[in-house]
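Continuing from yesterday's entry. The apo prediction looked reasonable, so today I'm repeating it with zinc ion included to see how the binding region is handled. Same sequence as before; SMILES copied from the compound registry.
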Amino acid sequence: MTDWSALTDACGSAEHVPGLLDRFEADPSGVWSELMDHLCPQLDTALTAGFAALPRLAEIATGGSPKTLDWVLLAAGAIASCAPGPADPDSPLVLFPASIAVLHELTDRRLRETAGGEDYVNLLQALLSFEGVEIWDRSLDGLRTGEYEVDCPSCGVNMFVVIGQDDDDCFCCTDDCALREVQKFPLQPARAQELSALAQRLFTRAVADGQEGVARGVRYLFGRAACPDCGTGFSVAERVVAGWIP
Ligand SMILES: [Zn+2]
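Holo prediction written out below.
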Protein backbone atom coordinates (compact mmCIF):
# COMPACT_ATOMS: atom_id res chain seq x y z
CA MET A 1 0.00 0.00 0.00
CA THR A 2 1.16 3.49 -0.79
CA ASP A 3 1.88 5.59 2.30
CA TRP A 4 0.59 8.85 0.87
CA SER A 5 1.42 10.78 4.07
CA ALA A 6 5.11 10.13 3.39
CA LEU A 7 4.89 11.68 -0.08
CA THR A 8 4.59 15.26 -1.22
CA ASP A 9 2.68 17.02 -3.93
CA ALA A 10 3.02 20.65 -5.01
CA CYS A 11 1.20 21.88 -1.90
CA GLY A 12 2.85 19.71 0.76
CA SER A 13 1.65 16.43 2.21
CA ALA A 14 0.06 14.08 -0.32
CA GLU A 15 -2.43 12.66 2.19
CA HIS A 16 -5.34 14.13 0.25
CA VAL A 17 -4.22 12.71 -3.14
CA PRO A 18 -6.28 9.46 -3.00
CA GLY A 19 -9.41 11.60 -2.55
CA LEU A 20 -8.33 13.86 -5.39
CA LEU A 21 -7.83 10.80 -7.62
CA ASP A 22 -11.35 9.59 -6.68
CA ARG A 23 -12.76 12.91 -7.82
CA PHE A 24 -10.65 12.76 -11.00
CA GLU A 25 -12.03 9.31 -11.79
CA ALA A 26 -15.58 10.65 -11.44
CA ASP A 27 -14.93 13.73 -13.59
CA PRO A 28 -11.62 13.59 -15.53
CA SER A 29 -12.08 16.70 -17.67
CA GLY A 30 -13.40 18.77 -14.76
CA VAL A 31 -10.70 17.81 -12.24
CA TRP A 32 -7.75 17.53 -14.69
CA SER A 33 -6.32 21.01 -14.02
CA GLU A 34 -6.57 20.61 -10.26
CA LEU A 35 -4.92 17.19 -10.43
CA MET A 36 -2.07 18.52 -12.54
CA ASP A 37 -1.59 21.54 -10.24
CA HIS A 38 -0.95 19.10 -7.42
CA LEU A 39 0.91 16.27 -9.15
CA CYS A 40 2.67 17.89 -12.13
CA PRO A 41 2.62 21.69 -11.93
CA GLN A 42 3.20 23.52 -15.24
CA LEU A 43 3.21 20.00 -16.72
CA ASP A 44 6.98 20.01 -16.31
CA THR A 45 7.63 19.16 -12.67
CA ALA A 46 6.48 15.83 -11.32
CA LEU A 47 6.44 15.21 -7.60
CA THR A 48 6.76 11.95 -5.69
CA ALA A 49 2.98 11.81 -5.27
CA GLY A 50 2.66 12.12 -9.06
CA PHE A 51 4.84 9.09 -9.67
CA ALA A 52 2.98 7.14 -6.98
CA ALA A 53 -0.33 8.02 -8.67
CA LEU A 54 0.58 6.25 -11.93
CA PRO A 55 -0.76 2.79 -10.91
CA ARG A 56 -4.07 4.34 -9.90
CA LEU A 57 -4.21 6.34 -13.13
CA ALA A 58 -3.66 3.09 -15.05
CA GLU A 59 -6.64 1.58 -13.19
CA ILE A 60 -8.80 4.62 -13.94
CA ALA A 61 -7.76 4.48 -17.61
CA THR A 62 -8.65 0.78 -17.83
CA GLY A 63 -12.18 1.40 -16.59
CA GLY A 64 -12.70 4.73 -18.35
CA SER A 65 -14.92 5.51 -21.32
CA PRO A 66 -13.20 6.50 -24.58
CA LYS A 67 -14.44 10.05 -24.00
CA THR A 68 -12.66 10.46 -20.67
CA LEU A 69 -9.72 8.18 -21.42
CA ASP A 70 -7.67 10.86 -23.17
CA TRP A 71 -7.69 13.05 -20.04
CA VAL A 72 -6.35 10.18 -17.96
CA LEU A 73 -3.67 9.26 -20.51
CA LEU A 74 -2.56 12.87 -20.88
CA ALA A 75 -2.30 13.26 -17.09
CA ALA A 76 -0.27 10.06 -16.76
CA GLY A 77 1.83 10.98 -19.81
CA ALA A 78 2.71 14.40 -18.39
CA ILE A 79 3.80 12.82 -15.10
CA ALA A 80 5.79 10.07 -16.83
CA SER A 81 7.51 12.64 -19.08
CA CYS A 82 8.93 14.28 -15.93
CA ALA A 83 10.16 10.99 -14.49
CA PRO A 84 13.79 9.92 -14.55
CA GLY A 85 14.59 7.49 -17.37
CA PRO A 86 14.47 3.69 -17.08
CA ALA A 87 18.19 3.62 -16.20
CA ASP A 88 17.28 5.05 -12.78
CA PRO A 89 16.10 2.26 -10.41
CA ASP A 90 13.77 4.74 -8.67
CA SER A 91 12.05 5.67 -11.92
CA PRO A 92 8.31 4.92 -11.95
CA LEU A 93 8.96 3.27 -15.32
CA VAL A 94 10.99 0.69 -13.39
CA LEU A 95 8.86 0.57 -10.23
CA PHE A 96 5.46 0.16 -11.95
CA PRO A 97 6.14 -1.73 -15.20
CA ALA A 98 2.68 -3.36 -15.36
CA SER A 99 0.87 -0.02 -14.96
CA ILE A 100 3.14 1.66 -17.50
CA ALA A 101 2.49 -1.19 -19.97
CA VAL A 102 -1.28 -0.72 -19.56
CA LEU A 103 -0.99 3.04 -20.10
CA HIS A 104 1.22 2.46 -23.15
CA GLU A 105 -1.19 -0.02 -24.69
CA LEU A 106 -4.22 2.21 -24.15
CA THR A 107 -2.37 5.20 -25.63
CA ASP A 108 -1.30 3.10 -28.60
CA ARG A 109 -4.94 2.17 -29.20
CA ARG A 110 -6.19 5.76 -28.82
CA LEU A 111 -3.62 6.95 -31.39
CA ARG A 112 -5.17 4.63 -33.95
CA GLU A 113 -8.65 5.97 -33.13
CA THR A 114 -7.94 9.70 -32.76
CA ALA A 115 -9.11 11.73 -35.73
CA GLY A 116 -8.11 15.23 -34.57
CA GLY A 117 -4.52 16.39 -34.96
CA GLU A 118 -4.25 18.24 -31.65
CA ASP A 119 -4.97 15.33 -29.32
CA TYR A 120 -2.95 13.09 -31.60
CA VAL A 121 0.31 14.96 -30.96
CA ASN A 122 -0.35 15.08 -27.21
CA LEU A 123 -1.05 11.36 -27.13
CA LEU A 124 2.06 10.68 -29.22
CA GLN A 125 4.12 12.49 -26.58
CA ALA A 126 2.42 10.42 -23.87
CA LEU A 127 3.32 7.23 -25.77
CA LEU A 128 6.99 8.27 -25.88
CA SER A 129 6.97 9.19 -22.20
CA PHE A 130 5.74 5.69 -21.26
CA GLU A 131 8.63 4.30 -23.32
CA GLY A 132 11.15 6.45 -21.45
CA VAL A 133 12.09 8.46 -24.55
CA GLU A 134 13.68 11.68 -23.30
CA ILE A 135 13.28 15.19 -24.75
CA TRP A 136 10.93 14.28 -27.64
CA ASP A 137 8.23 13.19 -25.19
CA ARG A 138 7.94 16.92 -24.45
CA SER A 139 9.20 18.51 -27.66
CA LEU A 140 6.67 17.47 -30.29
CA ASP A 141 4.38 20.31 -29.25
CA GLY A 142 5.55 22.47 -32.18
CA LEU A 143 3.89 19.97 -34.54
CA ARG A 144 0.63 21.01 -32.88
CA THR A 145 1.30 24.75 -32.49
CA GLY A 146 3.07 24.95 -35.89
CA GLU A 147 6.16 26.69 -34.56
CA TYR A 148 9.56 26.03 -33.00
CA GLU A 149 11.83 28.72 -31.61
CA VAL A 150 15.54 27.89 -32.04
CA ASP A 151 18.84 29.73 -32.23
CA CYS A 152 21.47 29.65 -34.96
CA PRO A 153 24.40 27.30 -34.16
CA SER A 154 26.81 29.82 -35.73
CA CYS A 155 25.70 33.42 -35.02
CA GLY A 156 23.21 32.65 -32.25
CA VAL A 157 20.36 34.70 -33.68
CA ASN A 158 16.94 33.66 -32.44
CA MET A 159 14.55 32.42 -35.10
CA PHE A 160 11.22 30.78 -35.67
CA VAL A 161 10.84 27.60 -37.63
CA VAL A 162 7.24 27.58 -38.81
CA ILE A 163 5.72 24.22 -39.74
CA GLY A 164 2.36 25.19 -41.18
CA GLN A 165 -0.55 23.39 -42.74
CA ASP A 166 0.98 23.01 -46.21
CA ASP A 167 4.42 23.14 -47.83
CA ASP A 168 4.07 26.86 -48.75
CA ASP A 169 3.52 27.59 -45.09
CA CYS A 170 6.76 26.00 -43.85
CA PHE A 171 9.67 28.43 -43.49
CA CYS A 172 12.03 30.05 -41.03
CA CYS A 173 12.38 33.72 -40.16
CA THR A 174 14.12 35.84 -37.55
CA ASP A 175 11.25 38.04 -36.43
CA ASP A 176 7.99 37.04 -34.87
CA CYS A 177 6.15 36.06 -38.01
CA ALA A 178 2.77 36.69 -36.42
CA LEU A 179 3.49 40.37 -35.85
CA ARG A 180 4.30 41.60 -39.33
CA GLU A 181 5.30 40.63 -42.83
CA VAL A 182 8.76 39.12 -42.64
CA GLN A 183 11.17 37.61 -45.08
CA LYS A 184 10.59 33.87 -45.16
CA PHE A 185 13.40 31.41 -45.80
CA PRO A 186 12.56 27.95 -47.11
CA LEU A 187 12.97 24.76 -45.09
CA GLN A 188 14.27 21.52 -46.48
CA PRO A 189 12.17 18.58 -45.26
CA ALA A 190 13.97 15.29 -44.71
CA ARG A 191 13.16 12.53 -47.14
CA ALA A 192 11.36 9.71 -45.37
CA GLN A 193 14.25 7.30 -45.96
CA GLU A 194 16.75 9.76 -44.43
CA LEU A 195 14.98 10.01 -41.09
CA SER A 196 16.69 8.87 -37.89
CA ALA A 197 15.27 5.80 -36.13
CA LEU A 198 12.93 7.71 -33.81
CA ALA A 199 11.84 10.17 -36.52
CA GLN A 200 11.27 7.28 -38.92
CA ARG A 201 9.04 5.59 -36.35
CA LEU A 202 7.03 8.78 -35.72
CA PHE A 203 6.64 9.35 -39.47
CA THR A 204 5.58 5.76 -40.22
CA ARG A 205 3.19 5.73 -37.31
CA ALA A 206 1.53 9.04 -38.29
CA VAL A 207 1.09 7.80 -41.88
CA ALA A 208 -0.39 4.51 -40.66
CA ASP A 209 -2.77 6.40 -38.37
CA GLY A 210 -3.93 8.64 -41.22
CA GLN A 211 -2.29 11.75 -39.72
CA GLU A 212 -0.82 13.20 -42.92
CA GLY A 213 -0.25 16.63 -41.39
CA VAL A 214 1.74 15.21 -38.49
CA ALA A 215 3.75 12.97 -40.85
CA ARG A 216 4.65 15.97 -43.01
CA GLY A 217 5.54 17.99 -39.91
CA VAL A 218 7.93 15.25 -38.78
CA ARG A 219 9.81 15.53 -42.11
CA TYR A 220 10.22 19.29 -41.57
CA LEU A 221 11.11 18.98 -37.89
CA PHE A 222 13.82 16.43 -38.70
CA GLY A 223 14.83 18.29 -41.85
CA ARG A 224 17.15 21.22 -42.40
CA ALA A 225 17.00 25.01 -42.40
CA ALA A 226 19.45 27.84 -43.03
CA CYS A 227 19.98 30.85 -40.78
CA PRO A 228 18.34 33.94 -42.33
CA ASP A 229 21.16 36.14 -40.99
CA CYS A 230 24.40 34.22 -41.65
CA GLY A 231 23.30 31.46 -44.00
CA THR A 232 24.60 28.59 -41.84
CA GLY A 233 22.70 25.38 -42.52
CA PHE A 234 21.50 23.32 -39.57
CA SER A 235 19.28 20.44 -38.51
CA VAL A 236 16.05 21.80 -37.01
CA ALA A 237 15.72 18.86 -34.60
CA GLU A 238 19.31 19.30 -33.36
CA ARG A 239 18.61 22.94 -32.52
CA VAL A 240 15.39 21.95 -30.71
CA VAL A 241 17.39 19.46 -28.63
CA ALA A 242 20.14 22.05 -28.03
CA GLY A 243 17.58 24.51 -26.68
CA TRP A 244 15.79 21.98 -24.52
CA ILE A 245 15.71 22.83 -20.82
CA PRO A 246 14.89 19.85 -18.61
ZN1 LIG B 1 23.26 32.58 -38.06
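Comparison notes:
- The mean pLDDT is 92.
- Residues 152, 154-155, 157, 227, 229-230, 232 surround zinc ion (CB under 6 Å).
Will overlay with the apo model tomorrow.
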